[in-house]
Structure formats: structure tokens, C-alpha cells
Amino acid sequence: MLDVLVIGGGNAALCAAISAREAGMSVTMLEAAPREWRGGNSMHTRNLRCMHDAPEDVLTEAYPEEEFWQDLKKVTAGRTNEALARLVIRESARLRPWMRRHGVRFQPSLSGTLHLSRTNAFFMGGGKALVNAYYRSAQAAGVAVRYEAPVARLELVPGSPGGRFAAAVLESGERIAARACVVASGGFESNRAWLREAWGENERGEWPADQFLIRGTRFNQGVLLKDLIAQGADAIGDATQAHMVAIDARAPLYDGGIVTRVDSVSLGIMVNREGRRFYDEGEDFWPKRYAIWGRLVALQPGQVAHSIIDAKAVGRFMPPVFRGARADTLAELARQLGLPEAALEATVREFNAACRVGAFDHAVLDDCRTEGVTPQKTHWARPIDTPPFFGYTLRPGVTFTYLGLKVDARAAVHFGGAPSDNLFAAGEVMAGNVLGRGYTAGVGMTIGTVFGRIAGRSAAAAARVTTAQASNDDGQAAPDAPGRQEPARPSEGLAPRRARARAHP
Ligand SMILES: Cc1cc2nc3c(=O)[nH]c(=O)nc-3n(C[C@H](O)[C@H](O)[C@H](O)COP(=O)(O)OP(=O)(O)OC[C@H]3O[C@@H](n4cnc5c(N)ncnc54)[C@H](O)[C@@H]3O)c2cc1C
Fold first, then answer.
1. Which of 16, 31, 272, 377 is a plausible cystine mate for 300, CB 3.0–4.6 Å?
2. Greatest Cα pair distance in the chain
């Protein structure tokens, strides 16, 4: 029988598959997507957030555990499991050597974009290169990969306490049994019907989710998340919580990726379709705040908003892939964007009059702010008075959802409060344990990499126990079988055969 079955084809699945293989197990990965679309949302990524106490390779200065934890606590407003969050943070310091061994290359961050050189390690070639490197490494080590293999449901051993995994059933009807399983099949962000149901109808009679765009893969339909919750797995998080960015309204429904993001928000004002401002555009550094704007836009009438800047902002943010509307007067800009002219002019007049400009510096929380206007703009407030004016129409772009499976530090999926002994979860499908809401850039890949590796090692340990038990049941000697399930141990860099030889220390 197969030792470890990994379901998914993105970062978390790959980290799990490689780790289980390093521990000497036979491993098969099932990816729903065809080969050319493999890699889920992970192929769209650029970096991961890493703790470090001093400058290290591509990371500048220091980013200690406590600061990382405080950042996470702040963005989640405390909706996080501290023990699991700290596990992720501490492990993040040790990831890069392992990633390098599997072909991932890093580069310093570009300056002038998201101010991330201290906290985030950037992948050379982006997430696509990372995913390709992991596939190469996994396959070279003997992991079997099957594409176009969407799993429809999991079979659990009937009556088993803690939900014991028996087999996966593919959409085709094929059944694959394994000693242990890792579910790394992402969130449910690609499932528009589920998003619609979760967000419901608002007080204006609108169904907000109908206007959402999906920034990543179309394959994260949440099939196994739904299936496991229905079979009694403990869920964590709220179905309306997600990483949601305000993206260019012209982005495609799926897979628009990072180029559809518009980073001009903190340099100007955001107005809704009535031409009114609705939130502090300068609340904090963009990397700490960009992920709240999708949700803010989702709450506006028509789920649409417009970023308005003037010529002073040009060159200070990453140019978006689509050109913005451009005009020499605000009235003309309003016409191009379909906004009420008088309302936009009045909003800008009021904002400009409220600006108290100090020493403008987009790299720090500067002292340019407003006084006497609601909402206040607390940093980088400068009058919008220098033509040409630019405007970008934005819609909510869902990156990934936070509703997930409750896990413990071994990545074991919980059923009625008890951990499964052979079913594990990693990545978006369990990220809600750490991210109850909010986001800080790069933490998605950190969670997936840390928990992917833990889940792979835990699944290997569980498979080993099952093998040993089977030998005992057959009356055969199993001298090195552990009497109880081992905690997962790192087996960094071990070739599978050597790892197997050392599997029972
Ligand atoms: C545009 C964009 C940019 C991002 N940038 C960053 C960044 O720079 N840094 C960062 O930390 N995070 C970033 N993220 C978030 C990041 O992508 C996720 O946190 C991370 O990729 C999650 O990894 P995962 O393996 O859990 O999910 P995914 O990479 O999405 O993989 C899920 C996999 O499961 C497969 N699958 C789904 N259902 C099934 C099924 N039933 N059967 C079989 N297979 C199935 C899918 O095909 C897919 O391969 C970004 C996301 C997007 C969309």
C-alpha cells in the first residue's frame, strides 16, 4: 500500500510530499490542475516572511520573533492561535537552507515597492520558479505526481475516533488507499457559489460576492474542506474572512496574479461610486494594509471604488499592468471613471483643505495628515492638485479564504476535539488557525512551508506506525517499530534511502 498520499499541487503539498519522501516513504501527489496550470496560488507568489536576528543573505537588519508575533497579533486583531503562530515564526528562521537544497533561489527585494527587504525573502523567478524547482526535486526523489486528478472525497474508517483516513476517491471514481494522507488543497476562494452563500445579500439587495474577482487559481474549489467538515472535522475561522485586495476592475476572473494589484492607494484618496471617501488611506505601511482594501471595497455600494492620485504620486508605486484613466481636470477624470463630477470635486476640495503637509516620506509613517475631515488620512496626505490626475477603478480580488480545518502542532486534523492519527493538513486549508483575519505580506507561504514540512513528516511517522502495526497484526517481527506514534522530526536533506535507514532512531 502507498505510504503517504498528498492532495494538492501547490507549495504546501510539495513541501509535504518532499518531506515525507525525505523520511523514506513512498509518496503520491494528486493535483487537480493539468500540468501547465499546476502549482495553485503558489505559482503567483513572490516571497515569504522570515524571522531573523541579524542580516542574513537577502534579508536586511533583523526581524526578531517578538516583532513578527506583534505584527501578526495586530493584523489578526488577536484571532490567531499563539502557540501555532509562534511555531510558524520560529520555523521560518530555518526554512531557507532547506528550500535552497530543493532548488529555490532568492533575490533581494526591489526597492520602492512594498518596503519588504527586512522581513521578506523574495524568490528568484517568483512562485512559478519555486513551484517548478520543487516539482523537479520531488520527482527526482521519487515522488509520483498525477495531474488532472481532482479528489472528490475522502473515505474515513467508519467509527474511528479522530477521523482515521482510509482512502481518497477521485472525481473519476478511482479509489486510492494510503497509510497516511496530507490535505493541501487550498481554500475555497475559487468557488463562487460558496463565496456568494457566505457573503449573502446585503442591505442594498446586492450579492457582493458576484462582483469578486479571484486573483489566483480556479482549482481551489474547497471540495475537501467541505467534505471533511461534513464528515465531522473541526472547522476554524469564518467563511467571509479572506485575504482580499482591491485590484484593477479589468482583471480576469481567475489568475490575474500580482500585476492586477494597484498600489497607488496610500498616495492619494479612495472614493466609492458616489465620489465619497470611506477609509483612512494612510493608516499604515502598504504591506500591512493592502489586504484590507478588498474587503473595504466589498462593503461599498456596487462593490467598486476608485483610487485617485495626481502627478506627484507617479513613480512612487509599482506601475500597474493596466493604464489608469488620465485627465487634466478632476471633472474630466470623473467623467472617464463614471463618477458624479460635482461630488468628486467636492470630496477633493474638502480633502485638500484638510491636508496638513509636513515632511513627506513614503518610506516612513510621516507627518503629512489631515485635520477636520472624516475619515482622517493619517499619513502621506498631500493635496490632490497637480495635473494630470489619474484614476483606477478597483474591485475586490480574493486571494485566499481563511475558513479551514483545525489542526495541532503536528498538523493533525481534529475531529470533535481529537486529532486524527493519519490525516494531516497544510497550507491555505488550515491557515485560518494562524490567520483568523487580516494579513501581513508573505505569511501565507511561511505557513504553507512550515506546516507542509510538518505535515509531511507527521504523515511519514503515521505511515510508519501503520506499517509496524500491520506487521505485528500479521505476527511478524517488527523490532524497530515504535510503541506509539513518534512526534515528527526534521530529516533535513536526507536522501530517501538513508532517511529510511534512520527512520526509527
Ligand atoms: C496573486 C497572488 C499572490 C500571492 N503572493 C503571495 C506572496 O508573495 N507571499 C505569500 O506568502 N503568499 C502569497 N499569496 C498567497 C499564497 O499563494 C498562498 O498562501 C499559498 O500559495 C498557499 O499554498 P497552498 O499550497 O496551500 O495552496 P495552493 O498553492 O493554492 O495549492 C492548492 C493546490 O490544491 C489543488 N487542489 C485543490 N482542490 C483539489 C482537489 N480536490 N484535488 C486535488 N487537488 C486539488 C490545486 O489545484 C492547487 O494545486 C499570493 C496569492 C495570490 C493569489
1. 272
2. 86
Structural domains in the chain plus CATH codes: 2-187+222-240+402-473 (3.50.50.60), 244-397 (3.90.700.10)
**Average confidence (pLDDT) over 70-94:** 95
- Give Cβ neighbours of residue 216 (< 8 Å, ≥ 6 apart): 40, 41, 44, 189, 190, 254, 255, 257, 399, 400
| Joined grid coordinates for residue 391 | 484614476
Cα–Cα distance, 190 to 211 (Å, whole number): 13
| Residues within a 6 A CB radius of ligand 1 | 7-13, 30-33, 39-42, 44-48, 150-151, 184-186, 215-217, 219-221, 223-224, 257-258, 399-400, 427-428, 442-445, 448
Looking at residue 467, what is its pLDDT? Answer: 79
Tell me the CA distances in angstroms from 410 to 419, 426, 457, one per residue in order: 9, 10, 9
> Of all atoms in ligand 1, which is nearest to the CA of residue 258?
1
| Angstrom distance (rounded) from CA 267 to CA 487 | 49
Please give the Cα distance from 330 to 166 (Å, whole number). Answer: 63
- Mean local confidence (pLDDT), 27-38: 98
Per-residue pLDDT tens digits for 324-379: 999 999 999 999 999 999 999 999 999 999 999 999 999 899 999 999 999 999 99
The answer to whether 212 touches 251, Cβ cutoff 8 Å, is no
Please give the pLDDT value at position 400.
92
Residue recorded with cell 495635473: 387
Residue 73 in this model has a pLDDT that exceeds 80 = yes
| pLDDT over threshold 90, residue 19 | yes
